[in-house]
Amino acid sequence: MDFNQFNLDSRLNAGIRSVRFQKPTPIQEAAIPLALAGHDLIGTAQTGTGKTAAFVLPILDKLLKGPGKRTRALIITPTRELAAQIHQTIGILSRGTNIRSVAVYGGVGAGPQIEALHKGTEIVVACPGRLLDHIGSRHAKLGEVEILVLDEADRMLDMGFLPDIKRILKHVPARRQTMLFSATFPKEIERLAQQTMNDPKRVAIGISAPAETVSHTLYPVPQHLKRGLLLKLLDQTRTDSVLIFTRTKHRAQRLAKQIADGGYKVTSLHGNRTQGQRRQAMNGFKKGQYQIMVATDIASRGLDVDGISHVINYDMPGTADDYIHRIGRTGRAERSGEAFTLVTPEDKKLVQKIEDVMSAKLPRQTLPDFNYGSPKPDYSKQNGNAEAKVNGKANGKSNNGTKRNPPHRSKRRAR
Ligand code: ADP
Ligand code: MG
């Protein structure tokens, strides 16, 4: 089985050759023929399974069959990094064609986006907020959109983008092909699908469980010893490419600094950084200029960085789904990876849930030469109660600079 089986427009061969995909992934194999046939489609598959090409190739094929210059495909995605990444994939896959794409997201100047929109672009890859700005100022014209993709739909709902999506939909023709991709399929997605789609075909690959190429280990540790344990763990690990998650942007910032003090090349990715800093962090991490990136969940969905060897959950994620998404950053496309999670006694319930989703008990590991008995520092005697203060300040604010603030998170932080 290879990509020839889809009978894609031959002008796409150059692009497919240059990404060097040998054969379609299961989601591509199932979704591409349905998408090519013009069906509405709901695709559910865990992260790292190749969903991007599953919608980009049918879009390109369809665009090649019609007129250019006007926006005929709209891809909506939750984060800037994802928009940039999809735009980039389109650039590669469309190499042998004249099809153009523009990435539309906030945090960067609107000028180049506006210019690209006016010059004419067949594909718009957008985050909801900035797209609405461009619609409002009449720079983005979506009246001839034929294909709409909602990528990472579960994440968009989590981040509170539903009202924005509904507003955008008013500017897109009702007669269109709609594809919705999601790693998980909660009830809200079902509802969104009912509202936006026409008799969709469903393609679900596997259950919502992490890639089997990832091995998982839990490291039980009291809260106050987390940092010490992490440094010890890093010390014992081949730290080529490690992604570390924290619960809040303040914790990400602080931990990155502490790890840097330990002599590592480290950067951070979170909502308190400017778009330029975020891009620089991502690129530096991708290129190996940084061995370690400390991030909030903003980095956990969809981002595709080659060869992440380890994902470390310094803080437990908010939900089992988030765990799966974070872990999806490693072991991508059948490479192997390791996931380490620091767990405190308070994380017990969530650990149970994750084990339920994975239908497996995860191994617990202790580090032999680590002093688990170190006493908790008495903060009341110092004015250095940074942890409590930082958490207190972060309370009620989103941890990644977006509109996200689901109730379970606030509860966790209020602890
Ligand atoms: P998802 O959106 O499902 O999380 P992506 O589309 O980001 O996954 O793809 C994950 C990784 O797999 C990317 O590095 C991509 O280049 C790679 N990939 C996609 N399709 C194939 C394929 N057919 N063969 C090999 N690698 C692939
Ligand atoms: Mg994706």
Provide structural commentary:
With 415 residues, the protein is α/β, with parallel strands linked by helices. The protein has 16 helices and 13 strands. It has two domains: 3-205, 3-Layer(aba) Sandwich (Rossmann fold), CATH 3.40.50; 214-358, P-loop containing nucleotide triphosphate hydrolases (Rossmann fold, 3-Layer(aba) Sandwich). Helix content is 39%, strand content 15%. A seven-stranded parallel β-sheet has the order 3-4-2-5-6-1-7, sandwiched between helices. Strand 10 (266-269), helix 12 (275-287) and strand 11 form a beta-alpha-beta unit. The protein starts with 12 loop residues before the first helix and ends with a helix. The model is unreliable at 383-415 (pLDDT under 50). Residues 21, 24-25, 28, 45, 47-53, 302, 304, 332-333 line the site of adenosine-5'-diphosphate.
Provide the list of bound ligands, each named once. Answer: adenosine-5'-diphosphate, magnesium ion
Q: How many helices?
A: 16
Number of extended strands: 13
User: Taking Cα atoms only, what radius of gyration do you get, to the nearest Å?
Assistant: 22 Å
Helix content: 25-40%
Uncertain residue segments: 383-415
Strand order of the largest sheet: 3-4-2-5-6-1-7
CATH level-four homologous superfamily name of the largest domain? P-loop containing nucleotide triphosphate hydrolases
Overall structural domain count: 2
CATH class of the largest domain: Alpha Beta
Alpha-beta classification: alpha/beta
Order of SSEs: HHEHEHEHEHEHHEHEEHEHEHEEHEHHH
CATH T-level fold name of the largest domain: Rossmann fold
Shape: globular
How far apart are the first and last residues' alpha carbons, in Å?
Answer: 52 Å
CATH architecture of the largest domain: 3-Layer(aba) Sandwich
Report the biggest beta sheet as strand number plus sense, adding barrel if it closes.
7 strands, parallel
- In percent terms, what proportion of residues is strand? 5-15%
